[in-house]
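Hey team,

Filing this mostly as a record. A colleague (T.K.) asked me to run one chain through the structure pipeline before their review meeting, and I want the input and output archived in the tracker in case anyone asks later how it was produced. No errors, nothing strange. Just documentation.

Input sequence:
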Amino acid sequence: MRVPFMFISDIHSPFHDKAALELVLEYIRRYKPGRLVLGGDILDIYTISSYNRGNLNGPKWLKDELVVAENEVIKPIYEVSKKANHGVKIDWIEGNHEDRLSNRLLPELTRSGLGAIFSLIPSIQEFFRLKERGITYHKSKRGNANFKLTKHLTCMHGDKGGINPARMQYANFGASLLMGHSHKQSTFSIKLGNGDHHMALCSGHLGEEPSYVDLHNWTLGFIAGWIETETGEFGAWHETIVKSKTDKTYSLYSTIGHLRATPKGNGYVVSSVKLT
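Output structure:
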């Protein structure tokens, strides 16, 4: 059976791009994925990081940061996905930002003699009620969480950058994969001597423009595709979101048509646009 899927990554709530997210939600409504993969760094967890983003216009406390993520990102994605396809299966891969909760917060508390407090802080699984919602959380064990979407395709957060992070990650992994992390879309494909064809795609991001970087080549977007549940075969492609330089509109020229997000009040409204 052929099942449509989507891979969305690097939302970085509460620094998510509201217009881009609205376009993704509309895409979910129309594409009705049977599998939805949250590819990591869905949360930013900046409130417990020593890294100065240069953009601290969000909540000042961890709990408040998580509440924003629940109300503006996780809950909408979950509810829209379930309404579009009640049988959708959702996976969440731990990224390096989610990993801050265990690999940064616990050591800091321990060094301060407050390690016992860590047990009082809810995990991501607990706070977002992932078990109740049927969302599978893939926790990192060796720094790069991953799981097999099919026997021929692995999903991971990734840890590579450079000009073509998809190629860099493939060189390290050696099999077909989908990844995020670098915030820019890239593709690598190769046909091996035995006739096997491997493909690696690096997704774009869904966060705000970074005020702490003067020049960058990040890309707003995500990955869509299909998988065959019996054979493990798959197809995957990039969907790119373009922000207008002249106004505040966003366009998604996608395989399901041209969608446009236009400012309305404190949010955005999405509409279909006919190509002329």
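Quick notes for T.K.: Helices lie at 18-31, 62-84, 100-111, 124-127, 130-133, 165-173. The chain has a mean pLDDT of 89.
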